Amino acid sequence: MNEQPRRRRAGGRAANTARRGGADLHQSDWRIPLNTDAPTEPLRPEGVQAIHEGAMRILEEIGIDYLNPEAIEIWKEAGAIVSGENVRIGRDFVMEMVAKAPSQFTITPRNPAREITVGGKHILFGNVSSPPNYMDLSLGRKVPGTREQCANLLRLTQAFNCIHFAGGYPVEPVDVHASVRHLDVLFDKLTLTDKVAHAYSLGPARVEDVMEMVRLAGGLSEDEFRARPHMYTNINSSSPLKHDYPMIDGCLRLIRAGQAVMVTPFTLAGAMAPVTMAGAVTLSIAEALSAIALFQYVRPGCPCVIGTFTSNVDMKSGAPAFGTPEYMRATQMTGQMARFYGLPLRASGSCAANVPDGQAMWETGNALWSAVQSGANVVYHAAGWLEGGLIASPEKFIMDCEVISMIQRYFEPELVATEPEDIAVDAIREVGSHGHFFGIQHTQDRYETAFYSPFVSDWRNFEAWELGGAVWTPERAHRVYHEILSSFEPPPMADAARGALEEFVIRRKEEGGAPTDF
Amino acid sequence: MNEQPRRRRAGGRAANTARRGGADLHQSDWRIPLNTDAPTEPLRPEGVQAIHEGAMRILEEIGIDYLNPEAIEIWKEAGAIVSGENVRIGRDFVMEMVAKAPSQFTITPRNPAREITVGGKHILFGNVSSPPNYMDLSLGRKVPGTREQCANLLRLTQAFNCIHFAGGYPVEPVDVHASVRHLDVLFDKLTLTDKVAHAYSLGPARVEDVMEMVRLAGGLSEDEFRARPHMYTNINSSSPLKHDYPMIDGCLRLIRAGQAVMVTPFTLAGAMAPVTMAGAVTLSIAEALSAIALFQYVRPGCPCVIGTFTSNVDMKSGAPAFGTPEYMRATQMTGQMARFYGLPLRASGSCAANVPDGQAMWETGNALWSAVQSGANVVYHAAGWLEGGLIASPEKFIMDCEVISMIQRYFEPELVATEPEDIAVDAIREVGSHGHFFGIQHTQDRYETAFYSPFVSDWRNFEAWELGGAVWTPERAHRVYHEILSSFEPPPMADAARGALEEFVIRRKEEGGAPTDF
Description:
The structure is a homodimer.
Chain A: H1 5-8, H2 45-62, E1 64-66, H3 69-78, E2 81-83, E3 86-88, H4 91-98, E4 104-107, E5 116-119, E6 124-127, E7 133-134, E8 143-144, H5 147-159, H6 181-192, E9 197-199, H7 204-217, H8 222-227, E10 231-235, E11 242-243, H9 245-256, E12 260-263, E13 266-269, H10 277-298, E14 304-307, E15 309-313, E16 320-321, H11 325-341, E17 345-348, H12 358-374, E18 378-383, E19 385-386, E20 391-392, H13 394-410, H14 420-423, H15 425-431, H16 441-444, H17 462-467, H18 473-487, H19 495-510
Parallel strand pairs in A: 1-11, 6-18, 7-20, 9-10, 10-12, 12-14, 13-15, 14-17, 17-18
Antiparallel strand pairs in A: 1-3, 2-3, 4-5, 7-8, 15-16, 19-20
EC number (chains A, B): 2.1.1.-
Family (chains A, B): Belongs to the trimethylamine methyltransferase family.
Protein name (chains A, B): Methyltransferase
């Protein structure tokens, strides 16, 4: 046939009737996928040792700055060499502390059925977090985020079973004053979703407020809340070589309350990190291990995740790039280091693209696949990110969810099952050289669940697609977005819990919310 | 920093000056990348054995139909059990024959510097082949292909160093009569490119004509041509369980002339193959091995590639899907089988999308990454494919070349180098906790080649991108397309060779070209 499709496109006509995406998502049930692929390991053992050795030398010889006085005091007590804000620690201490961190733990949100397991072969995906701006196709331009847009993106976070946790604010609602923003968004998040929530480490008051709100939303006593992780925070170091005040403060508060922390240096090779990818990874590892060692010293065994966010800049402009080959290799290398230290790994979906087009999807696809290849346990920003994290896009959210759903489907064991009925010699014999597999029993028994079913992809042929309006993917995603919003129902919540939350928000607003001078 | 990008976007302003894509592609030099990643292997050894056992049972118990009388005679001579068109062969014979195939070989086009190595860790990418239709953004609609469009896509094939071979017709020029189409397209291909060319197995006259044209273009004697591979053909079986006349005829002609063949069953699970992926792969393996065994019997040691093109249909419409999770796993499983048999592997870039948008890029990205993960040696259709292979798109070609170039960059060893200067402890010490890596010597020494440099991606921030016209990726690709065409210079060619080609085409046209009743 020479791959001239005219002859092999038997399904072309039937494709006219292909189902279109819509609010009826036909998605898989909620579950935590297991990444059963062997990780991609570009480093040989000597390479792992070289990065480890480099990170240890940074910690021993150069040190990390802590802009947090409490941390400085703790470091002194722990026997570190402290000089002003600079903290140097020996490798034996680092390794002893890091070894105390669990390789796997759970976080249980208000709906226990949405509990997530962090570590091992589990791979979790979360929504985009923290863009200051929002853009959708009906607006047609980039605007500062609002509470309504934020809530709508939280509805998407809840609607998609492939999204396992509600990360940071999916867009920063700058129409809400910073002093009470955390109260409003957390109220929305804890009522519109029943998935694991996050607290920004942006000052003591916010962190304490969010912990209290998560406790109230779950109807938990103080002891029940503190008994195990119900939420987490994620911090970035201020590369190079610095941890700032509120980040460390937030983590200390969470670990003392039994909650989980993720430490994610953001090291852009060529800017705040060495131009070499191994160098950028080494710096990232040193910064992360320093903080994790501190937390393990304060609360041995507290749940910690090591994060990677190492990419490169465009050396001609300084613009950050994402989903590049360098980004992929850095993510994979950090995965090897995370396994070396026995820590769960966080990576990201990300892109530099400004609109939900082809570039956005190849960059994000590269980032997501590198997360898979690295053995990442937590994939931040997996849906909805544009412009290097400066724009939240609902269309991109929908499109990313298709890719993430396919990744989750990819890990279903039935795809690679090789029992006799999978090998199907009898079915092949039955059909012979002149038949078709559509109608036979072997197919009929399996066709409903045999293959991934898309919700925004259009698999129809060109003519059917054209007759249907010639709708490109972002516009289809826009429709799906509105279909989800119009049919959205918030997850059930006990009246008492909801009432307690409302009461707390009112009271804290009356008290003036959180200071904004952190 | 909590990943609120406002603070970490130091490069944002500088990004205004980011270089735009253009004909000045800044691409890497021509080279054959080595896939140094361990392949992704979803099958355990028992799974490989189960597929092998299934394929052997198909060949022994069910048999493959050969619609080619010469092949039937050869099979009788070889001791196969022949019943009409049906041919059954024992596993010992199959394995004995397949073992004769080389695991690696070269193909040398008219420019020896463009020689490709097929097998081992080498990974080669080729242009889209065989779509009957063409679409570009200035046309705005799908039209039957023309010679001019075909030639323009051949110019792209030549322009991009990431494209290693010129596969089939990048679009079928239906404005040229089928009797002489091969003459005109091969003339264009052999003059506009100096990369490895391909002959469609569409009847004896075409195959013989193309071999002669490749010989003339290279200025080779008959003996020189036959001494080693200078070209190849690719055939598809007529699944289920059939090889048709011209496909087998073409392969027999090529291997007897010392040229290379690729055997690629096209097995759509649920349509012409079992609904189970392992079953579809098993059928594909059986069909391919049958033909390869035949070829090895005829010419022991002749260069053969086993191809995979196993995907699934949308069970609701029958429409073929590409780049699905099922497609990825089938490709990886076939990779394991190819290594089991010691044969080089061919896979593909592909998508169901009708336009060069996000869906096109995530489907193609999935397909391309699964080719990488499977250890594929030859990646067909890697640039320019839309609508399940029914449309050739120059914009998609450009966009795919960005992805392919990134994959090739991904395999450069420097990305994961861990020598002391890569770990960069001294640079980290020099910059300390308050500096920046931009200006230091360690960066200056490396910045020009440190990172992948894009030609169609736009990495500028939103405001700069908007000021620049808010151009989405397909439109940028359209511009790059025309920039490449306007600056295109054909590769050098000896006057004698060009003259001989011209003469041959004129003579064969006078003789009426090839019969069109194959």
